[in-house]
Task: structure prediction
Amino acid sequence: MAQAVSALDDTLHVDLHRTSFAGTAALVWEHLITIDQEVQYIWPKPKTSWVKNVYLFLRYFSLAVQLTNRVLAEMVYSDRHLSLNTLRGYYASLVVIGHACMSCVELVMYMRVYALYHRSRAIAHLFVGLWIAETIVVFIGLAVTLPRLSATFEKERFVTNAPGSFAYLAISTLVSQFIILVLTFAKYKRGEWQGTTLGSLLMRDGTIVYVIFFMSTITAAIYSLQSYAFGMAEFSWLLTIISTVGCRLILNMQRLAESSRPRESSYTTTSMELTTLHRSTLYA
Result:
């Protein structure tokens, strides 16, 4: 083990450590600057609120995973005793953790589009099918890469290379996000939502989220497939991005729900938006 860790170039060791730590620090900072909004919009919701549960999962589960990874990485760097089998099992499960967090963000996106399409059953069935297909792809990737991982895993890998199964997660995520963006754009272009606050917000957020996830998941896939040494450092940032994007989407919609009030100058537009807001479970 000592030889494995010492084999890391000193400069690479420092860069990996700093990059991974920066990803965790960014998530902590994001939490600190949005805690007031969390208290205002999220905490008052009942325990049965799906919005509250998704938000808290994205915020605190992601943070717990980040901190766990940092502790384990420090133990690897300092050559502390670690069970190879336990570390390998946790390392392999990171793709499932990433999928769970990404699924929460996708649920938020699904519900937003579901509201745009007036709670269409066809849209609901499409999204359920998409999530099932994405989950199947992730577990196929895990099954394909696990045998090789079991034979070649060393503790050093936990701080360098991301699991090969991340490529499967990245591809399935890109497909889902693309379909969400197309559905949002198609509904917006039909004219029903053009010029409305809700329509503009969904288009803006949908486009930004797609661009962010496109860049981050493509990077994760490349690092995973090419076994680049910064794969695990990239995962630290990917987890931060997923948590931040998901929580920001929820907070944006909560602010919109609170600020949307009928005004005489825009009664028709506001009435349509509020009808969508209150008939959907988007803000529950």
